[in-house]
Write a structure and sequence with these properties.
The structure holds 3 protein chains of 3 kinds.
Chain A: E1 3-6, E2 9-11, E3 16-17, E4 29-33, H1 37-40, E5 46-51, E6 67-73, H2 81-91, E7 97-101, H3 109-114, E8 119-122, H4 124-129, H5 132-137, H6 156-166
Chain B: E1 8-14, E2 20-23, E3 28-29, H1 41-56, E4 60-71, E5 74-77, H2 80-87
Antiparallel strand pairs in B: 1-2, 1-4, 2-3, 4-5
Chain C: H1 6-28, H2 33-41, E1 45-47, E2 52-56, E3 62-63, H3 65-78, E4 82-85, E5 91-93, H4 101-109, E6 127-128, H5 142-153, E7 168-171, E8 185-191, E9 197-203, E10 215-222, H6 226-240, H7 251-258, H8 260-273, H9 285-292, H10 306-314, H11 316-325, E11 326-328, E12 334-339, E13 350-352, H12 353-366, E14 371-373, E15 379-385, H13 389-397, E16 413-414, H14 429-438, H15 442-448, E17 453-456, E18 470-477, E19 480-487, E20 499-500, E21 505-506, H16 510-524, H17 532-539, H18 542-549
Parallel strand pairs in C: 6-7, 7-8, 16-17, 17-18
Antiparallel strand pairs in C: 1-2, 2-5, 3-14, 4-5, 4-13, 8-9, 9-10, 11-12, 12-15, 14-15, 18-19, 19-20, 19-21
The chains are: A alpha/beta, B alpha+beta, C alpha+beta.
Chain lengths: 170, 105, 553
Amino acid sequence: MPQLIDRLGTAKDPWVTLGAEDVLPDSGAMIVPLERLAEALDAGLELGVHLPNDTDPAGLKPYFDRLSLISVGFPSFSDGRGFSIGHCLREFGFQGRLRATGPVISDQFDYLLACGFDEVSLPDSIAERQPLEHWAATPGRISLGYQRGLAGRGSILDARRAASYAAGRG
Amino acid sequence: MAKEFNPVVVTANDLVEGDSVFLGAFGWVRDIAAARVALSEGEAKVLETAGNEGENGNLVVGPYLIEVSVTNGQPVPVLRREQIRASGLPTMPFGLDVPVERRAA
Amino acid sequence: MYRYDEFDHRFVNERVAEFRDQVERRLTGALNEAEFKPLRLMNGLYLQLHAYMLRVAVPYGTLDSRQMRMLAHIAETWDKGYGHFTTRQNIQFNWPRLKDVPDILEALASVEMHAIQTSGNCIRNITSDPYSGVAPEEIEDPRITAEMLRQWSSLHPEFTYLGRKFKFAVTGSEHDRAAIKVHDIGIQIIRNEAGEVGYRVLVGGGLGRTPMIGKELRAFLPKADLLPYVEAALRVYNLHGRRDNKYKARIKILVHETGIDEFRAQVEHEFATMDRAAVTAPEGEMERIAAYFAPPELATKPPAPVEFERMQKLDPDFAQWVERNTYAHRVPGYAAATISLKPIGGAPGDATAEQMRVMADLAETYSVDAMRVTHEQNIVLPHVAIGDLYKLYRGLASIGLDMPNKGLVTDIIACPGLDYCALATARSIPVAQAISNRFADNKRQREIGPLSIKISGCINACGHHHIGHIGILGLDKAGVESYQITLGGESTEDARLGDRTGPGFGYDEVPGVVEKIIDTYLDLREGQRETFFQTYRRVGMEPFKEALYATAD
């Protein structure tokens, strides 16, 4: 069972991922493949969709108010398209849960958070080699970066400006 | 006629030191002369598996097979790149071994 | 030069601690090599033929004596006593051990240096003009812009796992000494008609397997828009750049396949719709950085000191060194001096710890403690009083770095090649050494005039052979080293990629081939002053092809 990780720690995944061939249920929290999104819209589900990382995120804009979760695919940890996809989804105004799905490594956790992601769904094989302690230890390992990001922490440039203002030099 | 098999050895880089090493009879060695030479497809597969164990055991990085020719019992890599690698050094004097031509200050 | 504040210090220190942890997890196996590799690459740590290689960042090539002394200390303590200055203004150490690297990074952090993002599929060192703050025609010191970009690009959460490496270069003058036309994004500081200072932005230049000259992305970008604009460009690249093929993953391929107009439209659209305020540096930040690059206070000095003139007459080698290796400063009485790291028969760009220390002392004494690494693998001392040039020269002579060969045939650029590099297909350093020895005579070098030879040991072109007047590319043909020659490359605002002469030559043939090319040039040139590049552009490839390939009698 894939491991779900967010800022608070590890959790049992409350979402079920629907396979391409599975029958669509009429209730529950389901992450559907992109090609079944239209079909699932009226099914009375708490709805999530999985977006492969070679798909234009703008295509999901019309469905934001129907989607509680968007899962963005990371086929490998070295394929960083998902970071921009996450950023774009937030810029487009998506306010639901944003999930990174794939074999990402704990050292990427901060970057994912800064790009607007809330949680990570890891395959089992990775989860075994990267115990939760590593994931928990990463956020804030670099206390401030030079970019503001979307995690609400501000940047070195902001802190620097605040410090010089406070010192009366601003 | 069966395709002739070229003898191979396994080489990798030492995880900590970074230098090139070879799989010998009892572990990883720096001198290719002490490397285990595979003379058949089957032996090569055994070597390859043993090489991968070295990576899984965090001793070495990136094990792979290289072709060697065996002369007087000594394996010599076929490719120039691997010859240079096996020597452990650049082909020319480097660093502090390069004479500095000083002119009086 | 830029000095770290408390935030910058904390950033690199935390980065060192992070890498220490990553190394430990690698040694225990919590990280396997596939996972560790991108992490170590982002800290500049390669695994080469004989050892690890650590590439230390020298932001836009600028360093002071304290830092150069630390590089010497690192060379002695954790390496084999020397370092190699690179074509991207960085320095490489060829023999560190993995478990020593966190200590090396800690030592670097203590002098405001690091190895962040000098490798890997991320934004690399921002390079610039070695005559920043010196060139008379400069509109603005490009290192201010380079420092803004450096901070913006450091551990950028969205752009740390790009499809491929990404390289920026910035020039503050129209005469481009930063080779901006062959960078992923090249930035030229310009004035618009209203006299406002802003940027001309080029995109999609690069060398390697498919060399391309950059295309104009934006004719004029107001300064305040710099960070949001480059962020928009990177976002478009990150989303749409190819990921299927490593050799087609640079932005130049995306621009080429999309077309510059469509690519520009996508960037401008992102720029128009993004939240720019979130990316734009807070008010005052650019001014704060600019203050670090204010011109140094240079005491008034005579433009033509008597002693200086006298020594030139007495010492013809010094006169040649002045002619070749010094550059007229915008402040009268001063010059920028190039320390050639190309002694005859040496490895281009290498310096021993002792040489580093002496250079540090000389910079401290004669150049207000300033030094720059150039992308031609030399060192520039930017602010030397003309009256001090002779003492500087004698100091360089004591460590064998007084070659008066800047821009001449023995000022060769060479990548490490098959003697060091795991990617190489042929040796490059010994080829450079053989050519250097062949043309050792100062008089002959002067006779030949400006001629840049650039040698790459593989198709990745780290030796920048495409933009050499004579480019040499070392390949492997059925197990034998084969060197392809290109002619007429150029790296400045007249950037052009060299033209292939034809079939390649063997390792032993190369010095003779170079000699034939030069003899052909000397035969054909119109007067002493026509340079090799000018002659080539006038007469074309034919005479050279004939000289090289005409059947022997």
